[in-house]
Design a protein that fits this description.
This protein has 4 helices and 3 strands, in the order ββααβαα. It is of the alpha+beta class and 81 residues long.
């Protein structure tokens, strides 16, 4: 099973990074469901800005962690690369 690291932009222009096996389902959860992340529930709607496919959950978690440590400017550079 493949995993994805994704970045969404919230309605307040902040960026949220997460992992999922199905990015479209997760985006739907962020926007319309109680299953969305606590952070994004009050910042709806969110829109997908970036996704990266990884081989397994461990790799995805490590990549998510490294992206979360980036500055906003570095995340925007990643998105626009």
């Amino acid at each position: 099973m493949s995993y994805y690291v994704y970045i969404v932009e919230c309605s307040d222009k902040t960026l949220y990074t997460g992992i999922a096996t199905d990015v479209q389902r997760r985006l739907e959860e962020h926007n319309n469901s109680v299953k969305g992340a606590k952070y994004t529930k009050h910042r709806r709607p969110v829109k997908l800005m970036y996704k990266e496919k990884l081989e397994d959950r461990s790799s995805a978690s490590k990549r998510e962690h490294s992206i979360k440590k980036l500055t906003r400017e570095e995340k925007l550079s990643l998105i626009h690369a």
